[in-house]
Amino acid sequence: MSFFIRNKKNSGTGMKRKVEKKHDSKIKTSKSISSKAPIPKKTNVTDDGDISDEIDSDIEVNDKEEISDSDEEETAQEKRLRLTKQYLSQLEQTEADDEEDNEQRRDLIGDRLRQDVLEQNFRHHRNIADKYSTDPKDHEITVLKGHKLSVTCSVISPDSKHIFSASKDCSIIKYCLKTGTKLHTVPGGRKGTKHRGHTDHVLCMAISSDGKYLASGDKNNLIHIWNPETCQLIHTFTGHRGPVAGLAFRHGSHQLFSGSHDRSVKIWSLDEMGYIETLFGHEDAITAIDSLARDRAISSGGRDGSVRIWKVVEESQLVFHGNNEMIECVSLCNEDNFVTSSCNNSLSLWSVMKKKPLVTVRNAHGVIGQSVDSSSENWITAVTALKCADLIASGSKDGCIRLWKVGENFKSLTLHCVIPVTGFINSLQFSCDGKLLIASVGQEHKLGRWWSMKSAKNLVFIIKLKICSE
């Protein structure tokens, strides 16, 4: 019995010791925890509620620190964004300061590009006739001597530095425009003999737009191609069966159009020095031919009273009929309009869109108040137009060259100035800038000897046109 009683006692004390050990371990763990965690000064932990409040406050502090860190990161991004926006705004401000100037520059550049395209295509129009003086005394005239017979044709180089003239004496002369001196002379030869130049009257000349080739045609049905720099003969084209009355280069190329009294138009390639094609349609001798940038040419048919525009690519032609008149000369104003002169002393403006002239000036080179019939002998022998402008020049044997102003939409033609020149005006040509007018003058008409003016001289006239300041 004593054994079991003793065991009960021991078991009770053991339980107490176990409980005390557990309690001591709990106290030790709580002390270790409290010793590790920082306890703020002057803080008395009284109960479990205060401890929970303190833990919550610590959690809130940690959350605020994390939020502040995230705020700092967002602020850096916002700073970069702000600086970028600031830089862009500065650029916009700088551009805004010059916005008006930039717009004006863009407009000027755009206008200039459009103008250049129109100029290259000969479709623009300049109203400059009013800038030229109406007083003939203001226009300075210089004469070039050298030909023995009537000067039939002359051309000016694209750079306006040289003039080439030809005559009934079969010679070709190259002049310096600045000094008026002769630089080269290609003498004419006797008809029927072998000669490197012409052996019959030279009727027409043309020079390429780049100044590389000079072409001349004569009554001997030949076309000579020259080097304008040295005046050396390069090639001779044969093929026409009648006198070559007109030559014209296509602008910007070495394609040459020739018109002849055999009623045909021929096309030549100077790059290959070969023949391309022959165009038929005129019913009488071709008297003049002209061309611009497009692959087409315009020719006048003389006594058949027609003007034809040859569309080479389309292989077709446009036909324009005058009022039963012999059309002597034709010149393109631009790609859409042209001017003609006839043997009854009339001057007409045309449009490619209409078959009849837009306006016709009768008795253009007659005396004011004189009847048309009595002045018919003063037929217009030369006409030229300043390309893409409202200025036209015409000549006859009435002792003057007349400048005409073209009205709006080519519906009017008014006399602008009269420049006295004695003799037959066989050809006229403006310089590219419109400051010079070159006239070939002789005692006789280039095609015959119906009249002979003894008071006239065989000269090349250089008329420096006076342009009034704006």
Question: Explain this structure to me?
Answer:
The model is unreliable at 1-52, 63-71 and 368-375 (pLDDT under 50). The longest helix is centred in the first third of the chain and has 50 residues, at 48-97. The chain is elongated, with a radius of gyration of 49 Å. It has a 4-stranded antiparallel β-sheet with strand order 1-28-27-26, with no helix packed on it. It has 3 helices and 28 strands. β3 (162-167) and β4 (172-176) form a beta hairpin. It is of the alpha+beta class and 470 residues long.
Summarize the structure.
This protein is an alpha+beta fold. It has helices spanning 2-36, 48-97, 99-120, and strands spanning 140-144, 151-156, 162-167, 172-176, 182-186, 202-207, 214-218, 223-227, 232-237, 244-249, 255-260, 264-269, 274-280, 288-290, 296-300, 306-311, 316-321, 327-332, 337-342, 347-351, 359-361, 382-385, 391-395, 400-406, 413-420, 424-430, 436-442, 459-464. Helices cover 23% and strands 34% of the residues.
Keywords:
470 residues; alpha+beta; 4-stranded antiparallel sheet; 28 strands; disordered N terminus
